[in-house]
Amino acid sequence: MKKQLFIIANWKMYQNEQAVESFFEEFAYNNEAVQVIIAPSAIHTSLAVAKKTENMAISSQNIASEELGALTGEVAAEQFAEQGVDFAIIGHSERRSLFGETDEMIAKKLYLAKISTMTPILCVGETSEEKAAGQSVAVVLRQIAAALNGGVVGENMIIAYEPVWAIGSGATPTTAEIKMVVDAVRGAYGVETRIVYGGSVSADNVYTIISEAGCDGALVGKASTTAESLTAICQAATR
Ligand code: PGA
Question: Is ligand 1 within 6 A of the CB of residue 162?
Answer without folding.
Answer: yes
